[in-house]
Design goal:
CATH architecture of the largest domain: Beta Barrel
Number of helices: 9
Structural class: alpha+beta
Shape: elongated
Helix content: 10-25%
Number of domains: 6
Largest sheet: 5 strands, mixed, barrel
CATH topology of the largest domain: OB fold (Dihydrolipoamide Acetyltransferase, E2P)
CATH superfamily of the largest domain: Nucleic acid-binding proteins
Length: about 575
């Protein structure tokens, strides 16, 4: 009996030595595989092959794992301490999992494998993502293009690639852009290998500019220019597309050296201008919508892809249209006549006024030359006054036809806008749509007999200063007739000016030196009038002297006779 305890002690010592020999390869801070031997409320007991068993706190397991774990399961555990004060091994499932994650991530980095990452939050310079551990996703590595709404990515999961890892510092940097570039490059190679001119290909609208839309054809972009979107007018590409639209386009040109691809949408259909001449011949009536206005006219959409121009001069027979907006507005439905068709230059000239009777056809018969009319002054210009007739036709009273006798510098001297006036029809030019009116023709021409009789060359006349010019002064004579005293006929001693010697409405007496019936001009002279006055004074003085001499002579004769 006495030897048995000694034997047991020897066996126990040998076993401890065996355990020590077995466990010396298990260092603290390493991962060991063990077997679950007991499951408690607060701890899980694991046998890793040592003399004592290991303890893992239950709170290191998530609820779902605790529900499924059972005795006999094999676990990867982390050895924190060989034994605590009670002789139990201290193990960690949590640290073992983290080390396993880091090992997997380092291996993924070496193998260049893809990992999934869930975006946790937005931080300075990028995003924080969860790939088993927290990793940094720089802003420049999120997408191929800058992302405007980074907050919208939070909570989403993306495939990522590890581009930098440091386990000791706990740093991991990932990239989504690398994978997108790889995918794009693969798509590009596939697309380019099959791309050819004339081919129909599907793509997605990637970007819209003022001059066109860029279409993603699969790793490579092509330009759909605004002029190749429609046979008709397109003000801006956004009228037809929004970013993200799927479209089918035709490859118009592919430059393999530069990689540029030109696309077309309108080329999928026939050119509507090919048969426009037969479909819309000259003289045909059309109805269309006003699609745009310019200073010179309005563009009318006749059918999709076909537009015609109504020039501003072809909008109305009777009104002078200064801008198309006074007649039509964008969106209006109008009727017009086809005036000319030029398929080569893709031009159609239209006329709106041609759909109504031409009032000039009636004017010629209604208002023959010599007819007296009444109308309102519609506008005044430097060269005359426009008078409106009942039919909406405007006639012009030229400034030269306002007065027989007065020198009119501007029609506003006699007329005002809106004033009712009488006039005489002088001429009608139907082709040029011009109606010439005369105001002075309402009365007889005083130059035919009256003026030459009343104002004879060599006589003296008196009038008032009506105008002063650089070349002389105009004198209003009796009956409203004007005469001109040229500067050469005025005696001025420098530096005296006309303004210094004459004033408006000043009475002036001058000599008539010329009456030109054809030119309707009366020339006056102050110089000649002054000379005549001096000559008259001299003649009167000379006549007086002679009379005095004659009187003295007669007296002397009488005295001599008495003396004898």
């Amino acid at each position: 009996m006495g030897t048995q305890p000694m034997a047991e002690q020897m066996d126990r010592g040998a076993m401890e030595a065996l355990y020590e020999e077995t466990f010396k390869n298990f260092e603290e801070g390493t991962i060991i595989e063990g077997t679950v031997v007991a499951i408690g409320k607060e701890k899980i007991v694991v046998d890793i092959g040592y003399k004592s068993e290991g303890i893992i706190p239950s709170d290191q397991f998530i609820t779902e794992d605790l529900q499924h774990i059972k005795v006999g399961d094999r676990l990867q555990v982390y050895l924190e301490e060989r034994e605590d004060a009670e002789g139990n091994l201290i193990l960690s499932k949590e640290k073992a999992d983290k080390m396993k994650v880091w090992e997997d991530l380092e291996q993924a980095f070496k193998d260049e494998r893809v990992v999934d990452g869930r975006v946790l939050s937005r931080i300075k310079g990028g995003m924080m993502v969860d790939i088993g551990v927290k990793a940094f996703l720089p802003g420049s590595q999120i997408d191929l293009h800058p992302v405007r709404d980074l907050d919208g990515l939070v909570g989403r999961t993306f495939p990522l690639k590890i581009i930098k890892i440091n386990h000791r510092r706990g740093n991991v940097v990932v990239s989504r852009r690398v994978l997108l570039e790889e995918t794009r490059d693969k798509k590009r190679q596939t697309t380019l290998a099959h791309l050819k001119e004339g081919q129909l290909i599907h793509g997605m609208v990637k970007n819209i500019t003022e001059y066109g839309a860029f279409i993603d054809l699969g790793g490579i972009d092509g330009l759909l220019h605004i002029t190749d979107m429609s046979w008709g007018r397109v003000g801006h590409p956004s009228e037809l597309f929004v970013v993200g639209d799927r479209v089918e386009v035709m490859v118009l040109k592919y430059d393999r050296e530069t990689g540029r691809i030109s696309l077309g949408l309108k080329q999928k259909g026939a050119d509507p201008w090919l048969n426009v001449a037969s479909k819309h011949p000259v003289g045909a009536r059309i109805r269309g919508k006003v699609v745009s206005l310019t200073d010179y006219g309005a563009f009318i959409e006749i059918e999709p892809g076909i537009e015609g121009l109504v020039h501003v001069s072809e909008m109305s027979w009777s009104h002078e249209v200064r801008h198309p907006s006074r007649i039509v507005s964008v969106g209006d439905q109008v009727e017009a006549a086809v005036l000319s068709v030029d398929p080569g230059n893709r031009k159609i000239s239209l006329g709106m006024k041609q759909t109504a009777p031409n009032p000039w056809d009636m004017v010629e018969s209604k208002y023959p030359a010599g007819t007296r009319i009444e109308g309102k002054v519609k506008s005044l210009t430097d060269f005359g006054a426009f008078v409106g007739l009942d039919e909406g036709i405007d006639g012009l009273i030229h400034i030269s036809d306002i007065s027989w006798t007065k020198h009119i510098k501007h029609p506003s001297e006699l007329f005002k806008k809106g004033q009712k006036v009488d006039a005489v029809v002088l001429r009608i030019d139907k082709e040029k749509e011009r109606l010439s009116l005369g105001y002075k023709q309402l009365g007889l021409d005083p130059w035919e007999s009256e003026i030459p009789e009343r104002f004879r060359v060599g006589s003296t006349t008196t009038g008032k200063v009506s105008k002063m010019t650089d070349f002389g002064i105009f004198i209003e004579l009796e009956g409203g007739v004007e005469g001109l005293i040229h500067v050469s006929e005025i005696e001025l001693e420098p530096p005296t000016r006309l303004e210094d010697k004459f004033a408006a409405q000043q009475d002036v007496t001058a000599k008539i030196i010329k009456v030109d019936r054809d030119e309707r001009k009366i020339a006056l002279s102050l110089r000649e009038h002054s000379r005549d006055s001096e000559r008259r004074q001299f003649d009167e003085y000379h006549a007086g002297q002679q009379q005095a001499d004659n009187t003295l002579g007669r007296a002397a004769k009488k005295t001599k006779a008495k003396d004898e």
